[in-house]
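sorry for the late reply, my laptop died twice this morning and i had to redo everyting from scratch. anyway the thing you sent over, i finally got around to it. pasting the sequence first so we're on the same page, its 176 residues, then the predicted structure underneath. double check i copied it right bc i was rushing
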Amino acid sequence: MTANGGQEQSRWVTTVIMSTALQNHEISTILQRQQHRVRYSESVEIGSVIFSLSGVAFILADTQDLLRTREESFFKRIQKFINIHRNSFLVLSAALHGPEEWNVMFRIQRRFLGSNLRIIPVHNTAETVKLMLTIAKITSKPRADDIRNQVAMTKAQIVENSPVWKMLQEYQLRCN
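ok and here's the structure:
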């Protein structure tokens, strides 16, 4: 019996496609240490991390780098990325999210408002890997189906135990 109620957690492992620019990055090392199959590709956008089995893609950016570079060239990269990946996330990294960093994030949000891009601020590499794996795991086919079933069961239980539902059932019995 284990600490989580007797059920052993199976280790979730997946294939990750990464931009070759991230080959020596700490994120790549962490994913490989966790036994994920990491593949590198020159054909994906620089800074991309793609979980193809889950259908999610992340593009990594450092907020400080964005403050030093031309915004429009970065926006073109992001636009190309979201045109290719329908389930896309921009992971903005900064040790501290101060006024300048929040301003960068606001400009990106305003520019891509209405698109399928979701922006996630992070502080470090460990946090980045954890969030990417969490999103990829819950959107992977078997997990997504399990979550959908759990939500449907919970919804059914809420409706079944609802005082309004009970009142409607009593009303229906009285009317028959």
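Strands lie at 15-19, 37-41, 48-51, 56-62, 88-93, 117-122.
thats about all i looked at so far, will dig more tmrw
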